[in-house]
Amino acid sequence: MCMNASCGSTSTVEWKKGWPLRSGALADLCFRCGSAYETSLFCETFHLDQSGWRECYLCNKRLHCGCIASKLVVEFMDFGGVGCTTCTNCHQPNLNNRGENPGLFSRLPMNRQHTNGESGMNVGKADLFSQPLVQGDDKREEFMPHRGFSNLMKPDNATTTGYRHDANGTHESSPTPSQPPSLNMPMAALPYSLNFATATKKLMDAASQSHTVQSSASGILQTPSKSVPGTPSGPGTSKSAQARIGRPPNEGRGRSHLLPRYWPKYTDKELQQISGNLNLNIVPLFEKTLSASDAGRIGRLVLPKACAEAYFPPISQSEGIPLKIQDVRGKEWTFQFRFWPNNNSRMYVLEGVTPCIQSMMLQAGDTVTFSRVDPGGKLIMGFRKAAHTGVIQGCGLTNGTSNEDTSSSGVTETPTSVNASSCPAQTPEELKGLPEHLNSNHGGSSLKKSEVNGVKDKKRTRTVGAKHKRMLWRSEEAMEVRITWEETQELIRPSPSEKPTVVVIEEHEFEEFNEPPVFGKRTIVTSRPSGEQERWGSCDDCSKWRRLPVDALLPAKWTCSDNVWDESRCSCSAPEESLKELENVLRMSKEYKKRRSGVSQTVRTEEELTGLDALASAAALGDTLGEEEEPATTTRHPRHRVGCSCIVCIQPPSGKGRHNSSCLCTVCSTVKRRFKTLMMRRKKKQLEREEIEAAVAAAADQENKEDGKTGRIDLNSDPCNRGDVEAVGVEEKDESEKGEAGGCLGVAQADDVVGVTELEGEGEKIGEESKGSS
DNA sequence: CCGGTGCATGTTCAG
DNA sequence: TGAACATGCACCGGT
């Protein structure tokens, strides 16, 4: 009997042997419906050899099968699974080599389920049962493992398998091809889907009949974590609920042949939610980390060949077919699924993915996941941001029918979190992670970095270094941006009209805002000779600088009238305080900007140190603020006076005599201790700022007016300058975090205008201490 | 001139 | 070593 239920032919006359296999054998082909049945269809990848050997077309290993006696599909269907074993080479199921009485054995699907101890591994192959061979222009086409789609690629194809599902999820075969099965509805949108669904149902049916291993076919599909207990420890295998586990997909020809990097990865917790919350069965298929090309404007997503052939409809023409895929928000996208000839092979791509990628706010390094909904076979495209926090992005469930995500879906996540990049309620940790995904490191995954990124570090360095068109960044660049982001958090304020909604996720409170954040006002931190720190802010109206508490956070719009800390200067009419120290800092920032322009990345740090020296000299000599004046070279700290003998200023020029990283002298010990204290203090201040933010949010609705009214050096108006200064601060910070590194002394030389001057203050204080101690 | 398309090429990695 | 894949780039058509 032709296993194509739409055909149902039982006549052997209608079976022809004529489909040439690579091995030279011929496949059985139904004359009526064109469905072909070859041994490989039931033994996954093993082709019938005339001598009784089967050749795995994946690994070309030849294994003898004792079940080849029958030339009729039905016999393979019923008995072909005799003691299926697994190919020791490629782990594809194989028939054993004993000619045992086939009647004693259960049906194929169940046997296949235990072929390698992974029940899930062997489910869902029934789509193979109704496969008219598609003779494409590509010789490889005859071995295309997914050709079973072909009859379903044509909605009006008479060979469309008709299976009807009742409310219980059971099915019955449609006796005639003319009887349109109900599942043709989804097929109209996804012509190929029925094949999956049908295949699945067939397997389910087979499984239920065999009443063995699997008690529930739905369980096979629904809960990979449960149905795949024996999943080999692929990358990231862990019992931890937080571990992102790569599991070989349950279905698809050659799916276990897929590289682990394409295995859908999800945590046990996600799986639990998937299985527990969804009514539909989600079958994770595969995932792919987006490359720069994938995420680029060109709009072409390169699909892993094996995945494309295993899970997507077969295509014989290069132009391919339109493929409808629903995203996790329920929106359906139509991509062109096609391929290009490539080195006697094919390169599969999804074209037109740019809008989808953009809507998901994905970038290179993020991961897109492909899943399938059963029944129905609808393809679902999800994604996972590459944030180091491992947060699954885009799992927002949008409607009742599509609240399925891909491998990573089902995880409860509020929609706002999708817009992490613009959500002010994000914790600093989350926000830190955002830029890091540019660095493409999946947190929570134990995958090796190269697998996670899809790009080797070595390659990344090379490509980015040599060709700046690549979007992948070197780690140092990413680090720079990451820290800049951290510092940026100090400027972010909630929208003044916004009141946060506090949600608790895993015992952590998160504030959610509907409105995007606004940027707060920049301030600078200075230190008095006594070591006391103070913050300065500029009035938006009169541009006068006002002394503020060191932990003050100003809204974007801030005027003297908002100066609640100093009643004597809460009006623009109040005189300005001394700016002598402040000017030094500002001047230093300007010098940095000048020096950094045009400086190559590789020598940047060194040159900046030189710049610091020059600035220090200028400051020490008490020269003017003339911009074009070239200061003399010294290592003295710019804000220190002539004759200052602090730890910074006593350093000899050009780094000579600088303490090394292992130095344990009193000065260095003090610096180290101070630095630790500083870090703790900054964390504390961060918390305090958040509180203050709420207090000042109401006043932050006005735009931050550009400074410069008075011609004074502007800290707020030039983002480029700001970036420069920030970058300097980053590097300085990085330098200091390297330890003790090199510098325990260098940390005090420069700082960001936003808060990093604390380090500078530290340097001063330390210097004073050292002075005192010496 | 610009953007899209199709293919070529270089690199990486698994077998 | 060959397959897979990331991306460059030449070509072509539209504006």
TrEMBL record:
<feature type="compositionally biased region" description="Polar residues">
    <location>
        <begin position="213"/>
        <end position="241"/>
    </location>
</feature>
<feature type="region of interest" description="Disordered">
    <location>
        <begin position="698"/>
        <end position="742"/>
    </location>
</feature>
<feature type="region of interest" description="Disordered">
    <location>
        <begin position="213"/>
        <end position="258"/>
    </location>
</feature>
<dbReference type="Pfam" id="PF07496">
    <property type="entry name" value="zf-CW"/>
</dbReference>
<keyword id="KW-0238">DNA-binding</keyword>
<keyword id="KW-0862">Zinc</keyword>
<feature type="compositionally biased region" description="Polar residues">
    <location>
        <begin position="398"/>
        <end position="425"/>
    </location>
</feature>
<feature type="region of interest" description="Disordered">
    <location>
        <begin position="398"/>
        <end position="468"/>
    </location>
</feature>
<dbReference type="Pfam" id="PF02362">
    <property type="entry name" value="B3"/>
</dbReference>
<dbReference type="InterPro" id="IPR011124">
    <property type="entry name" value="Znf_CW"/>
</dbReference>
<keyword id="KW-0479">Metal-binding</keyword>
<dbReference type="InterPro" id="IPR015300">
    <property type="entry name" value="DNA-bd_pseudobarrel_sf"/>
</dbReference>
<dbReference type="InterPro" id="IPR057743">
    <property type="entry name" value="Zfn_VAL1-3_N"/>
</dbReference>
<keyword id="KW-0863">Zinc-finger</keyword>
<dbReference type="InterPro" id="IPR003340">
    <property type="entry name" value="B3_DNA-bd"/>
</dbReference>
<keyword id="KW-0804">Transcription</keyword>
<feature type="domain" description="CW-type">
    <location>
        <begin position="530"/>
        <end position="580"/>
    </location>
</feature>
<feature type="compositionally biased region" description="Basic residues">
    <location>
        <begin position="457"/>
        <end position="468"/>
    </location>
</feature>
<protein>
    <recommendedName>
        <fullName>TF-B3 domain-containing protein</fullName>
    </recommendedName>
</protein>
<keyword id="KW-0539">Nucleus</keyword>
<dbReference type="GO" id="GO:0005634">
    <property type="term" value="C:nucleus"/>
</dbReference>
<feature type="region of interest" description="Disordered">
    <location>
        <begin position="147"/>
        <end position="186"/>
    </location>
</feature>
<dbReference type="Pfam" id="PF25813">
    <property type="entry name" value="zf_VAL1_N"/>
</dbReference>
<dbReference type="GO" id="GO:0008270">
    <property type="term" value="F:zinc ion binding"/>
</dbReference>
<feature type="domain" description="TF-B3">
    <location>
        <begin position="286"/>
        <end position="387"/>
    </location>
</feature>
<dbReference type="GO" id="GO:0006355">
    <property type="term" value="P:regulation of DNA-templated transcription"/>
</dbReference>
<keyword id="KW-0805">Transcription regulation</keyword>
<dbReference type="GO" id="GO:0003677">
    <property type="term" value="F:DNA binding"/>
</dbReference>
<feature type="compositionally biased region" description="Basic and acidic residues">
    <location>
        <begin position="702"/>
        <end position="712"/>
    </location>
</feature>
